[in-house]
Predict the structure of Putative pre-16S rRNA nuclease.
Amino acid sequence: MKIIGLDVGEKTIGVAISDAFGWTAQGITTLRWEEGNYDDAVQKLTPYIKEHEVSKIVVGLPKNMNGTIGERGEASQTFAKHVGEQFQLEVELWDERLTTMAAERVLLDADMSKKKRKQVIDKMAAVMILQSYLDAKSR
C-alpha cells in the first residue's frame, strides 16, 4: 500500500505518492481548489487515492519557525481531519517548515523559468514533505 503526501495551500494542493515499499516519493500533480471547499478537494483526490491504493495520507503542517501553529497550520489541521474522515484513512500531519522554500531553491538551481516554477512548486513541496516523512519512518 502506498502513502500520499499533500502540500495544502489556499489555492492549490501539491500531490506526491510513495512507491509500494515506502522508500521514495514521486510528484503526481497539483490540484486547484478553493480553500474551505473540502468536498471539491475530496472529489479531486479520490482518483489518486483509488488508483494508487493509498493506505495513509501525510499532510504538510506549516509551523511557525518557533514551532507554534499559526493560521496556515490550523487550516492544514482542518483539511487533514476532513480528508481522513472522508477517505477513512489514517492521516498524519508532518512538519513542512521550509519545504516550499527548499523546492523553490531546487527549481532555481535547475534554471527553471518563473512560469514553470509556479506550475510545479506545490507538487515539488509535496514530494519533499513525503520524502522527509518516509526517511524519518525508515530509521
Summary: Residues 2-138 form a domain with the Nucleotidyltransferase; domain 5 fold (CATH 3.30.420.140). Strands lie at 2-8, 12-18, 25-32, 54-61, 90-95. The chain has one domain: 2-138. DSSP finds four helices and five strands in the chain.
